[in-house]
UniProtKB/TrEMBL annotation, chain A:
Pfam families in alphabetical order: Clat_adaptor_s
Family statement: Belongs to the adaptor complexes small subunit family.
Mode of membrane association: Peripheral membrane protein
Protein name: AP complex subunit sigma
Species, as recorded: Oryzias melastigma
InterPro entries registered for this protein in UniProt: AP1_sigma (IPR044733), AP_complex_ssu (IPR016635), AP_mu_sigma_su (IPR022775), Clathrin_sm-chain_CS (IPR000804), Longin-like_dom_sf (IPR011012)
GO molecular function, one term: clathrin adaptor activity
Annotated localization: Cytoplasmic vesicle membrane; Golgi apparatus; Membrane, Clathrin-coated pit
Main location as per UniProt: membrane
Ranges where the AP complex mu/sigma subunit domain occurs: 1-140
GO biological process, one term: intracellular protein transport
Signal sequence segment: none
Assembly, per entry: Adaptor protein complex 1 (AP-1) is a heterotetramer composed of two large adaptins (gamma-type subunit AP1G1 and beta-type subunit AP1B1), a medium adaptin (mu-type subunit AP1M1 or AP1M2) and a small adaptin (sigma-type subunit AP1S1 or AP1S2 or AP1S3).
């Protein structure tokens, strides 16, 4: 099972956090701090896996953004790496050539996509088409509501 | 694909220049969030950021609380609040508004509301309760998106106690026509299973339905639950093996829709999940394993090496092949795979290759040999993660030949490691290897020194404990022991002469103990020198008070000579007024023992071997105290977790639908929630055991039940590794120069890598690392390797140093405390620890009554004897010296006086209450079908008298059937009074006090007495049918649960136990169904109590329920007692 997913920039600024098991604020803060220092200190071209306490940390850098996934010990590291990659692909498909700014300015969208992809720390849907379809389905709901909503969504 | 992504993301920094770029309209740069983000990026200092955010937060706060804010604006505000929280600023004022938004908004707003809630709140937040209704409503919505959102949020965050409220609706969703809803529902149930397994027990068959769902996505989701279930109990799901194999075959064969492909690999997540399940099912089970060989073979064949995801599948396959019952063909293929991994230039694969090797090497050590050169390269890899993993692998292949090299490598790593977790782990491993394979004394001590200095104070306490135990217990040869100890002493003396302030506290404590015990072995060493060295530790700034205690104890052992005494006295004086009580006590001990050399030599015989410490882990010496407290109405002890559980139960709303809580179906999980063997504190053998207390006290065996056995006779009780058994060959290693006298200061031994570089060096390292692994020769070096893993001497399973760790004072055997204590108390009349004395003496006052018919009498006997002493001030009474034989005859003669209507029922032993020259009062109680009658016999051995008896009790209602309170008792006769008793409030024991006043020969006199009877006297069997039992169970609100000991009966331990209970407590066994038993009883007629028993893990899990408060608890106490006596 996955425990958490963190997205942070090269400067260690948090961009997205998802916790799959209940944790106190203090624990969260500590993990975020540990992860950023741990991952940012890694040399390029080193192994993408880190053993940290009783968890495995799998991280990958995409441009200036680090994706850092904490999984339980019996999980498959390579598969976790592909989880990260699939998430990036999903973001890319939704935003179209995704960049860090997309995620900064539309972070709630990034969360919605993540919620369709992972649920309760497990993979829910691996198909890109399916995830996008359900995201778009909820995005399009605005049309049924009123035209005003539609405008807000487009220009706001 | 990934290249494209990476390219676009690389272009990012230029975008960050924040000039509005064409096409970045979607970045909503005009929004308030956009402004905020941009504002923050422009700032240069943390302080400015703080100011800006605080300003932002106050403006958000103002807006959210304004009544004019629309839901649409609210949504925007929430996003901003979430952003601020992500930056680490608290926005708790917005939590309630997030909930409101989820409640009242339209779909889009709701989505943001739910998101904000799941980001803001954690599982225990009280506001979460407000969400329950919203979720409930949305789950029932006709809008699919709302249902999806509700299921998502349920998965993410939902109060555990509220699960029952939504469970039926989530269950319903398993039949929903839309597969996405079904899938989410399955995942939600998986989540429930993880956080509250007992809540979803009853829907296991629905999981099976989900597994058979026509949509592969739903089926995949259900595998998460199955993986979990099979992890917990593989046996129960063996029948599904064939189905899982079939599914995997279809997946591997590409039968799933294209949608499930990932980079043209069919459903890799599903494949890996199935492989994990199969490896759990096939573990240690040849028959089940055989079913899956074919599909595993196909998986290995199909996965072509070209993409990460296929490697992931291969890795899982390899793990599976090595986990299940072995098949040589598959093992060969898997080994080739591992080889490919290890040799791969990709670092991630190399890492996994090493991991796989580590996993496999226990079964197949030769595989490591094949890759030895790669492993050596990895040892010096630039990435610490790879290095660490290599050490892990080496740890598994360590044997007597290569131990020095491997330990050296590990210590090298430890010296550089900054991560606490790694340090603790690695230090433990080095210590383990040193125990097992140390080639000689010097090496062992030096290695342990290194472990102690590097491991520091984070190290697991077992390591120093085990080390001291090893030293103190010794091995087969006295001479060897002496050498080892002497070497340790030498080594520590020189460490202390160096700079001890750098040593960790744990290490100092070890040093103190060793010097205290064994410094006498060094002939040319004046104890005063040692004392001075130790005293210097006391003055060190960093010394913890724990360490100081160890120092003082060590000093106590050392003060022999005159000069030593003077040093000791000085120290003792300083610390005898310390605020730390432990320290103070040690100082006192030091003071007194150093003054009185005779006492000292008695308590601490010079060089004497340690007597094992007597530990009464059952604390039976407190039994008297406990029983007194209980009889005085104290509640029985409940273990911590039970109290917490009750507390949380009393706090939490009970939403449990009663229809579901039939004991038969749910008890298993709720009781197994706590499997720790829990007994009430009174369980230490209140009655039967205390008989032989004195006998036990004199026995010299050590009782350490409950102490974890880390060290056995063979040394450290680590899991046996097959490597040990591999035939070993001695390869001449340049490293071991036996007999070399090492110097104590350096714990670094010679490193092989000091040689000139080159392949030869690697070869050499390889030969030293992999020595003993090849199977060419069968020369066994067990004798050598066993030296440190040898047997401890004699039968002494004592863990003296273990005790030492927790409390240094105990080290010198309890006799010290005893002697010291008594000595001080008697001679100096200076009570140091009066409570100790009390507890020591207490057991003696526990006496065994003769001829008690009831276990209760054991407790009550003491009490009543105490109180029986008539307290009448008016008259001197020569009370209670009835010789026992007289008692017996009296008993017999009085029985004849039992009223006719009661003679058919069983009665308790007749016990004397009080007496004087003319009157004897005795009593017993009779259990009739629906009452308990107290019968008081008044034997008048002189003239006629008028007497009046009053009997009172706080917890019992006493009613006297005879009308006149005053009655005439004729001379030389026996008069009988009856009192019927009813329970007002259940208690473990009831106590009656009475007063007898009588006038004879014109004088008025009075006596007081008391009588005690157990709750069991009031318990009657309750005959009900199983159905009635079921409906009653649901209606009762007070309950308690506990695990009891099961009787050791070959067959049918359950029914034997229940029969014993039935006999002792007069219960009614309603039915025994498999491992569960239903028992019913009632308190007299109208207060039922039901008991549900279940055999679990060799214990009897008991759950009592009753409408009467306290009744379950009190009854449980008696059940426990009854089973102990048995």
């Amino acid at each position: 099972m996955m425990r958490f997913l963190l997205l942070f920039s090269r400067q260690g600024r948090l961009r997205l956090q998802k916790w799959f098991t209940p944790m106190t604020e203090r624990e969260k803060k500590k993990i975020i701090r540990d992860m950023t220092t741990l991952v940012l200190a890694r040399q390029p071209r080193s192994c993408n896996f880190i053993q940290w306490k009783d968890l495995k940390i799998i991280y990958k850098r995409y441009a200036s953004l680090y994706f850092c996934l904490g999984v339980e010990n019996q999980e498959n590291e390579l598969l976790a790496l592909e989880v990260i990659h699939r998430y990036v692909e999903l973001l890319d498909k939704y935003f179209g050539n995704v960049c860090e700014l997309d995620i900064i300015f539309n972070f709630e969208k990034a969360y919605f996509i993540l919620d369709e992809f992972l649920m309760g720390g497990e993979i829910q849907e691996t198909s890109k088409q399916m995830v996008n379809r359900s995201i778009e389905a909820s995005d399009m709901l605005q049309e049924d509501d009123s035209s005003e909503w539609y405008e807000v969504e487009l220009f706001g | 694909m990934s290249d494209v992504v990476e390219k676009t993301l690389t272009a990012l920094p230029s975008l960050l220049s924040l000039d509005s770029q064409p096409g970045s309209a979607k970045l909503s740069s005009n929004s308030k969030l956009g402004n905020l983000i941009r504002g923050i990026t422009e700032l240069t200092s943390k302080h400015e950021e703080e100011k800006l955010i605080q300003h932002e937060l106050s403006s958000i706060k103002e807006q959210v609380s304004s009544p004019n804010t629309t839901m649409r604006q609210m949504r925007e505000l929430m996003v901003r609040a979430v952003y601020c929280e992500m930056l680490g600023y608290e926005a708790s004022f917005s939590y309630i508004h997030a909930i409101k938004l989820a409640q009242q908004g339209n779909v889009l707003e709701k989505r943001v509301g739910y998101l904000a809630v799941s980001l803001f709140l954690n599982e225990n937040h009280e506001l979460l309760l407000l969400l329950v209704n919203t979720v409930l409503k949305d789950l029932q919505s006709t809008n699919l998106i709302e249902v999806c959102m509700a299921l998502t949020v349920v998965c993410q965050i939902f109060p555990k106690d509220m699960i029952p409220a939504i469970l039926p609706i989530v269950e319903e969703k398993l039949n929903h026509p839309k597969e996405i809803i079904r899938r989410k529902a399955v995942l939600a149930l998986h989540k429930f299973y993880l956080i509250a397994p007992n809540q979803v027990q009853h829907i296991h068959n629905k999981f099976r339905k989900a597994l058979c769902d026509k949509d592969p996505g739903v089926m995949t989701a259900s595998l998460h639950i199955y993986l979990q279930l099979i992890q917990e109990n593989a046996e129960a799901y063996k029948d599904l093996t064939a189905s899982f194999v079939t599914i995997l075959k279809q997946v591997v064969g590409g039968k799933l829709p294209m949608d499930f492909n990932y980079h043209s690999v069919p459903a890799p997540w599903l494949q890996i999940q199935l492989l994990r399940i199969l490896s759990l099912l096939g573990k240690n089970d040849q028959r089940t394993s055989e079913v899956m060989y074919e599909v595993l073979d196909e998986s290995l064949r199909r996965a072509e090496m070209n993409h990460n995801i296929t490697y992931a599948i291969l890795y899982e396959c390899v793990k599976c092949v090595y986990t299940i019952h072995p098949k040589s063909e598959l093992l060969e293929k898997a080994a080739t795979c591992i080889g490919n991994f290890v040799l791969s230039p990709k670092i991630n694969l190399k890492y996994l290759g090493l991991k796989a090797l580590t996993y496999v090497v226990q079964q197949d050590p030769k595989l490591a040999l094949q890759h030895q050169m790669t492993i050596i390269e990895c040892l010096d890899h630039s990435d610490v993660i790879i290095k660490r993993e290599t050490l892990e692998l080496l740890f598994r292949i360590t044997n007597a030949q290569n131990v020095t090299v491997i330990v050296e490598k590990m210590l090298d790593f430890l010296r550089l490691s900054k991560d606490d977790h790694t340090t603790v782990d690695l230090a433990g491993k080095v210590a383990e290897l040193a125990e097992k394979y140390a080639p000689d004394n010097e090496w062992f001590i030096q290695t342990m020194n290194a472990v102690f200095s590097l491991g520091g104070d984070m190290m697991q306490p077992e390591i120093p404990n085990g080390f001291l135990k090893l030293l103190s217990e010794g091995f087969d040869s006295e001479e060897e022991d002496r050498k080892l100890r002497l070497f340790a002493v030498n080594s520590y003396i020189s460490l202390l002469q160096g700079d001890p302030s750098k040593l960790p506290q744990r290490f100092l404590q070890v040093i103190c103990w060793v010097l205290g015990e064994y410094s006498y072995l060094k002939d040319d060493l004046d104890p005063v020198v040692v004392l001075r060295l130790l005293a210097q530790l006391l003055d060190m700034k960093g010394s913890s008070s724990d360490t100081k205690s160890w120092v003082l104890v060590a000093m106590t052992k050392l003060c022999w000579s005159e000069t030593a005494v003077s040093v000791a006295q000085q120290v003792a004086e300083t610390y005898s007024s310390s605020f730390d009580t432990t320290l103070r006590q040690r100082a006192q001990e030091l003071q007194h023992l150093s003054r009185d050399s005779q006492l000292h030599s008695r308590v601490l015989p010079p060089g004497g071997s340690l007597e094992p410490v007597e530990v009464d882990s059952s604390l039976s010496f407190l039994d008297g105290f406990v029983s007194e407290a209980l009889s005085a109405g104290a509640a029985p002890y409940k273990p911590l977790h039970q109290r917490q559980e009750e507390l949380s139960r009393s706090k939490a709303l009970s939403l449990e639908p009663y229809g579901l809580s039939l004991p038969i179906s749910t008890s298993s999980c709720s009781i197994t929630d706590r499997q720790s063997p829990t007994l009430l504190s009174t369980s230490s053998g209140l009655s039967g055991d205390s008989t032989d207390f004195s006998h036990r006290g004199s026995s010299t065996t050590l009782k350490l039940d409950g102490v974890r056995r880390v060290w056995g006779r063979e040394g450290y009780l680590a899991q046996k590794e097959p490597v040990e058994e591999v035939a070993q060959v001695e390869i001449p290693s340049p490293l071991r120069s036996p007999g070399q006298q090492g110097d104590a200061d350096s714990c670094h031994s010679r490193t092989p890598t000091a040689n000139p570089e080159g392949d030869r060096e690697k070869q050499q390292l390889a030969s030293s690392l992999f020595g003993g692994l090849s199977s060419q020769s069968s020369v066994c070096l067990m004798e050598k390797s066993e030296r440190f893993g040898r047997k401890a001497k004699g039968q002494r399973a004592s863990s003296t140093p273990n005790e030492q760790r927790s409390d240094p004072s105990v080290s010198s055997s309890s006799a010290v405390d005893n002697l010291l204590c008594n000595n001080l108390l008697e001679e100096n009349s200076e009570p140091i620890d009066s409570s100790t004395k009390q507890t020591f003496q207490h057991p003696q006052s526990l006496r065994v009554p003769n001829g008690a018919c009831d276990a209760e009498a054991i407790i009550s006997d003491d009490d009543t004897k105490g109180r029986n002493r008539p307290v009448s001030p008016e008259e001197h009474v020569e009370g209670d010296d009835f010789p026992p034989c007289e008692d017996k005859s009296k008993d017999l003669s009085l029985t004849a006086h039992l009223p006719a209507e009661l003679s058919g029922f069983s009665h308790s032993e007749i016990i004397p209450l009080c007496s004087n020259r003319s009157l004897d009062l005795s009593a017993c109680h009779v259990q009739t079908d629906n009452t308990v009658v107290l019968v008081v016999f008044v034997t008048n051995s002189s003239e006629d008298a008028n007497l009046q008896i009053q009997v009172l009790s706080e917890e019992l209602e006493v009613c006297c059937p005879c009308e006149s309170p005053v009655e005439e008792v004729r001379g030389h006769s026996v008069s009988v009074r009856q009192y019927s008793l009813t329970v007002k409030r259940p208690l473990v024991h009831f106590e009656l006090v009475g007063r007898l006043s009588y006038s004879a020969a014109g004088t008025l006199q009075s006596m007081q007495f008391s009588y005690k009877l157990p709750l069991t006297s009031f318990i009657r069997p309750l005959t009900v049918s199983t159905e009635e039992y079921g409906s009653m169970w649901l209606a009762f609100s007070h309950d308690t649960k506990q695990n009891l000991t099961l009787m050791k009966e070959e067959q049918e331990p359950l029914s034997a136990t229940l029969n014993a209970l039935k006999k002792k407590l007069s219960l009614h066994v309603v039915e025994i169904i498999g491992v569960e038993g239903l028992v019913a009883c009632s308190l007299l007629q109208d207060q039922p109590c039901l008991m549900h028993c279940r055999v679990h893990a060799g214990r009897l899990a008991v759950w009592l329920r009753s409408p009467v408060a306290d009744l379950p608890d009190c009854l449980l106490y008696h059940c426990q007692r009854a089973l102990q006596e048995h």
